[in-house]
Batch of 2 targets.
Target 1
Amino acid sequence: MKSVLIIYTGGTIGMKEDPADGTLKPFDFSQIKEEVPELNKFDVRIDSYTFDPLIDSSDVEPSLWADLAQLISDKYEEYDGFVILHGTDTMAYSASTLSFMLEGLTKPVVFTGSQLPIGVPRTDGKENLISAVEIAAAKDPEGHAYVPEVAICFDSLLLRGNRSTKYSAEAFNAFASPNCPPLAEAGINIRYNTDIIRKPVYWDAQLRVQTHLDTRVSILKIHPGITPMVARHFLCAPEIRACIIETYGSGNALSKEWFLQILKEADAQGKILLNVTQCKSGTVNMNLYATGASLKHAGVLSGADITTEAALGKLFCLMGRSDNNQWVKTMLEKNLCGEISK
Ligand code: ASP
């Protein structure tokens, strides 16, 4: 019999209205099983692990990612797949970062959650949870997991975790991965997009877990009216090791001399500067416009079509692995686990 571990961290999926003040507060996992008796019908052994305290995902911190990665590593041999119930607000950050923390993955790690709590009549939580469990347990005829990746299962789509972004605060299709087709689609059957799904180099590979993250990263969103004081603070502050520069369109930013000077200063200090587009879809191409090319000359690296969420997780992991910024820069431009189209 196949087996899946459901790890419950919190989020709307497991929340209930507090009659005292009408706000949503987390409830314990046994209530989810009562709400979704369909889980008992699977020919899959389902165990659960509940985080204490349960959290709204707006409170997620890297320590939770370390705990999640460690838990998956500790239970890795016991289960065929893992489902992580998580709030939607930071799910794309968590799935992105976990994809870099879990190296040599041969089993599915499927994040899911919901827009409406599981107890309310029109909830999307039931369908999301049931599909996530089915995908986490699914194996091909050779006995290998269909999806040996960190993914997000939401509204009948399975998306690569490090390509996903929360796209809607209200709609059931809350997540999108504009630069990568879905890994699977759940209709009458679950259709796996086997050409897109990444396979491990060796199916008998050992899982390697990295729990040490270096979070000295700032995110500078370029906008009209940005001042030298703000730009300098995000790019050159001594406590910052890397800056994700969210640029316009295909990787463009203001061409003002003061801005280029600050970039050069940050580069001379050895900072890691990564260009990520503010657009949801498409890629950075710093060779297209003079405004992009000047960033490249100032030492800024191209993030290609990476999301901000994945850029953050990738930097946290790579910087946690090495103090050598040159090595981090080299690794940033490589496609490590499907996060960029290369
Ligand atoms: N604030 C909630 C959370 O992210 C929203 C959700 O679960 O959808 O935990």
Target 2
Amino acid sequence: MARHIFITGGVVSSLGKGLMAASLAALLQARGFRVRIRKFDPYLNVDPGTMSPYQHGEVYVTDDGAETDLDLGHYERFTGVSARQSDNITSGRIYQDIIAKERRGDYLGATVQVIPHVTDAIKNFAMSDTDDLDFVLCEIGGTVGDIEGLPFVEAMRQLRNEMGREQSCFVHVTLVPYIAAAGELKTKPTQHSVRELTGLGIQPDILLCRCDRELPESERRKIALFCNVRREAVIPALDAPNIYAVPLQYHREGLDAEVLHHFGLTSPAPDMARWDEVTDRYEHPEGEVTIGVVGKYVGLPDAYKSLNEALVHGGMANRVKVNIKWIDAELFEKDDAEIAAELEPMHGILVPGGFGERGTEGKIASVRFARERGVPFFGICLGMQMACIEGARSAGIAQASSTEFGPTSEPVVGIITEWMGKDGLEQRAAGGDLGGTMRLGAYQAELSPNSHVASIYGSTTISERHRHRYEVNGSYREALEGDGLIFSGMSPDGLLPEIVERPDHPWFVGVQFHPELKSKPFDPHPLFKGFIAAALQQARLV
Ligand code: GLN
């Protein structure tokens, strides 16, 4: 049976539990263990698909088409293990299933309650589909003491009782703040947070103490004494210079060794070569490029988490530092001279995914600038759609638009109502539900043999993840290709345009999918690697 590691957070939110879980999994993997990480989100949304990126950051999409929490992106980037639908659950989904069963009469007249029905559903989720694993890491969203998190903590308590200490481990992430007036790190918030957890029946086994400076030995011992753990189980977690340095740092502080000690396991020292290489590439760039990202949710970096990381990976692949200039597309609906003044310093322009009309004219203007000036351009999902609308306007179709923005006489981008899914034909009504109804998850595309993208991928068949409701309208293909925008990737049935490119441009690619979701620091995505290489070329020119 797989061993379970439960990860909770205390004191404040944003302590980096997701990164911690991802890093611990990477360390166990580096010791040869098979791992998987799961996220338990206590909120009542069924999934984050309908949540605003401003509130919740990006929606991470898995191969099997689940819209999940962005922490699953960290998990996948750090372990290379593809996340699945079964790795993220919310209170909303649990209640949805339970209420559907109750309505069907499946409970045979019983009273349906948080304990045992909700807690059993959480336990089943934690235990399901884990046969081939050594460790399952379960991260509980939120902070211990949150009302909506209580059933999750209770389910973990029950699991510990059932599995025993040898099969389960509780890691609690806390904050040890520095109080300037006292000139000291303070352990009291950690003590309170552990007391809160023990009040719920859980004695943590390992404490990961986030702090911004060295934790003195005396404080480490004090935390151990008051929180009832051994001194070695109090792991100082200082802020890391970059996220890819976190596994190395936690290893130095003894986190993985302490986890193995808890389980009574021994293993040879982990093979950290992958992480040494990644941090070396990150910390010792040999040049730099500046990429302008013209998007809508630029105020919150988490809204484009995977994109940000994929650009960094593209930089590592080329051994350059990537400076990202986030440009608010809405403020960008200016005259040509102002747009040129802002975009001229950019070595590459990227228009990312997005929803709704706001800011789209600014995005289209950026595509035009990139096309006319020969600046490397990368359009992702909505960005590809904008590249096609811009291309159509350049081809003389002045009214070119998307039906996403309202009725139009020239629907260069239109709603997809039918496509071939994994289980046969998928159909959608134009005015249907918003949640979980997009074309989601991994789909194959066929690339034209002599295209730029086929040479970038080194293959003519690819699989990439999608999340969209609209699609470039194939009936405009001739007009767009006549103007130099070539459809170089199509769905296998030849119906849905997946990639467009401009052969007469140094680097101009638009993709209907989200390649950023599959990029990893130790395996940068070829499109990001190619885009940054082209930006580097551009930097040498200007
Ligand atoms: N809004 C567009 C669509 O639904 C693009 C989506 C996206 O960029 N992810 O097709």
